[in-house]
């Protein structure tokens, strides 16, 4: 069942927050956001559902707020997915062109099917099939082969796979919250839609989305995605380090991170002090702010060094001409981009959702890049995939979503 009044809704199911965001489907730019709701994410750890009931309640709370704001009952969403279970691989395929040597949609479908013909373990499913480059009779660099004359059609694709059970649990939570899932979208792919320019994608860029539980990486070159990966480290690890290092409750550590956190001790004066609550009812202490900064800097350095290792492992460092774009909640921290530039050896900027109208003041933050990106993905019908309808039919979410709906109907 589709939402009324031409409304599309993205649901960012993150480790620290669940965000529902609604936009009008009018085909125009900028993207007009008309609804927003957010709740604390109690049932998610490192991007994976660990408590169905808590996750359902969090989804329902975010939806209620979004529905009140946009005045529309929400029935269908695009859901984001992340987690360390995400894997990406590059494959190629080749077919002979039929129908008078003119490339048709059927030829494109067949060549993508040939590229995705890989052995996948039973516990994994294909999430996205993202064509990078078509080749027609050895003519490479073709973005749209439809209608071209040729005998042989080849394609290079990036295939994203995920844990089947992780995706099933996301769909199950949405169904129990009264929602249908129109699509499941890899979160860094969505974030890229919100914060990267076409020039950056063409020249080569690394997107790093530092969420609460994971660090999502996507590398683009020649306008297409060529590498994806997820690190099991994020902003929550900063909070835990602060809590342990300063002997303060987790909730107070989160507040200290947001109010006083900086990514480098160089940004702190030697005489700056902060009030740090103690655990167990002990008295509040006054400590040097530099101590807080050193804890944050140590963990951020580790995260960026792991990202650098992943870039090297991808073998795409040489194509990154535009540098690095960091987004997500932890990217807002003062000095986060400078530290990333120092460690990764690339120019770095913080990615904010661009070209947004409506609730601009609410959503104009790296924290909401994924939510805005989900809306863009839905409005473009998944244009990152060359053949959206085929990519949808080939993905796992339709099959899983149908099974989940049947399961819920059987119970209720």
Task: Describe the protein in words.
The protein is of the alpha/beta class and 412 residues long. Among the domains are: 87-164, Dna Ligase, domain 1 (2-Layer Sandwich), CATH 3.30.1490.110; 235-297, ATPase, nucleotide binding domain (Nucleotidyltransferase, domain 5, 2-Layer Sandwich), CATH 3.30.420. The chain has 13 helices and 19 strands. It has a six-stranded mixed sheet with strand order 11-6-1-2-3-19, sandwiched between helices. It has a five-stranded mixed sheet with strand order 14-13-12-17-18, sandwiched between helices. A four-stranded antiparallel sheet has the order 7-10-8-9. Strand 8 (124-136) and strand 9 (139-142) form a beta hairpin. The chain is globular and about 80 Å long.
User: What general form does the structure show?
Assistant: globular
Poorly predicted residue ranges:
382-397, 406-412
Rg from Cα: 22 Å
The overall strand count is 19
Spatial separation of the terminal alpha carbons: 18 Å
Question: TL;DR of this structure?
Answer:
The protein is an alpha/beta fold and 412 residues long. It has helices spanning 52-70, 105-115, 164-176, 187-195, 198-203, 235-246, 250-260, 289-314, 336-344, 360-363, 369-379, 388-394, 397-411; strands at residues 7-13, 17-24, 31-40, 44-45, 48-49, 76-81, 87-96, 124-136, 139-142, 152-163, 180-186, 205-210, 215-221, 224-231, 273-276, 285-288, 324-327, 348-350, 356-358.
